[in-house]
Design brief:
The structure is a single chain. The protein is mainly alpha-helical. It has one domain (2-219). It has eight helices and no strands. The chain is flat, with a radius of gyration of 19 Å.
């Protein structure tokens, strides 16, 4: 979450300065930012999905291993959490706080009501699933509003490349787990494959990665 917040915050001055005067520039930065955040969040998927149970056992005990599906559901939720961070910054720059407040209250009401109904039946599986659904709703409504503010275009080609890279790397992670590779080694190899594939097929704007790393170094 730090990475998502840092990137979104770093783009805030650009949004504030250009969201009215140069909508195309703001839209271009937002499009590249969403792609970069998707890349970050998919890295979490590559790390967690193949070895969710091993991670739980490593951090706690075998008694909590039944929670592995919950980790996977929340991993998918993190994809939308990451991108929602940037969309919220865009809307704040546009001074759409009233819209954000109404959206937040509405989705909170949905989440609380649904939790009251479904948690007694499906326990923590319901809580995790409703968290995912809430983040999807925030993304849909937030993106809809953002596209009315600036001519935001989603880079579907790069996003497809990222999803493909992640899917291949997750399958590779499952294979390593199946043949008995220690899960930490499997994570390192899987994330290495993901990064290599994403780089080779130009799934992430390389200039943005470079700028992001430079900004971290300067502020580190």
């Amino acid at each position: 979450m730090f990475a998502a917040g840092y990137l979104a915050h770093s783009l805030m001055p650009l949004f504030s300065a250009n969201i009215e005067s140069d909508k195309e520039k703001a839209a271009g930065a937002a499009s590249r930012g969403l792609t970069f955040l998707l890349a970050m969040s998919l890295a979490i998927s590559v790390i967690c999905i193949p070895v969710a149970k091993d991670i739980i056992v490593f951090l706690s005990t075998e008694a909590f291993s039944a929670g592995a599906p919950i980790i996977i559901i929340l991993v998918f939720a993190s994809i939308f959490i990451y991108m929602n961070t940037l969309i919220n910054e865009m809307l704040i720059a546009k001074d759409a706080r009233r819209y954000l407040l109404i959206m937040a209250i509405s989705i909170l009401a949905f989440n609380i009501t649904a939790n009251i109904i479904f948690i007694p039946i499906y326990s923590f599986y319901a809580a995790a699933t409703l968290t995912l659904l809430s983040e999807i709703l925030i993304f849909i409504f937030g993106l809809s509003k953002a596209r009315r503010v600036i001519p935001l275009k989603i880079d579907f080609l790069r996003m497809f490349k990222l999803i493909l890279s992640a899917a291949i790397s997750i399958a590779f992670g499952f294979l390593l787990h199946f043949v008995g590779v220690y899960f930490i080694v499997g994570i390192i190899l899987s994330i290495g494959l993901y990064a290599s594939l994403a780089f080779l097929i130009d799934a992430v704007p390389k200039d943005m990665v470079k700028d992001y790393l430079i900004s971290i170094r300067k502020n580190g």
